Amino acid sequence: MVPAAARRAARPASRREPEGTLNTLWGHGGAYQTWTEYLTRWAEEGGAGTAAAAARLPRLRPEDYHHETWVRLVNQLTGAVGHRLQAWADSLTAALAEAAADAFAAGRALVQSRTGLDTVRALASHPSLPEDLRTQLRTLVDGQIENLQRQLEDQLTRAVRGGADPTWAEERRRTLRDNPLTTAPGATGAGSAAPPAPGGGWSYDPATPARRRVITD
Fold first, then answer.
1. pTM of the entire predicted model
2. 3-state secondary structure the chain
């Protein structure tokens, strides 16, 4: 028969085991928390605001997590990538609308928008992610970029049907094809380092809210 004092001493240990199990199940702390906190900030600020943190992101391995925890983490990754791509697309659309009367300005907006794509591609190719996940994320990113390229050209076709000047539409179509979004010079491949540091590449991140240009004398 076990003394009462011994039984009382044993009770806390039995409670700690489920707590540890829950921590593993729900992913509190460790690499999971580091990544989820990073993704929350990156989704809002992009590479320029999170470059230093990206370099310190720990390696992720699916075998280290409960299946449901890993699925949640992957969903956070794809959600953050989708958020940045949407912000980038909205900013580019606004910039092209502002440059509607100037083919040179439209081309410049397309070229400068690649900074935002480099940032997203860098996260999708982060070396701390498993190779199969990097492949899936890059496929997702490339598919979204190709889709936007098609949408921009389709908009020109619809504009002509709606009465827009065909000559203007054809000039814009040439601008789109001469500066395709699908070929970003700074695109980051697999196994690359963290997103571009502040000041690298173009002077601003087009995946931030559009700002009105001020022209001085």
1. 0.68
2. CCCHHHHHHHHHHHHHHHHHHHHHHHCCCHHHHHHHHHHHHHHHHCHHHHHHHHCCCCCCCHHHCCHHHHHHHHHHHHHHHHHHHHHHHHHHHHHHHHCCCCHHHHHHHHHHCHHHHHHHHHHHCCCCCCHHHHHHHHHHHHHHHHHHHHHHHHHHHHHHHCCCCHHHHHHHHHHHHHCCCCCCCCCCCCCCCCCCCCCCCCCCCCCCCCCCCCCCC
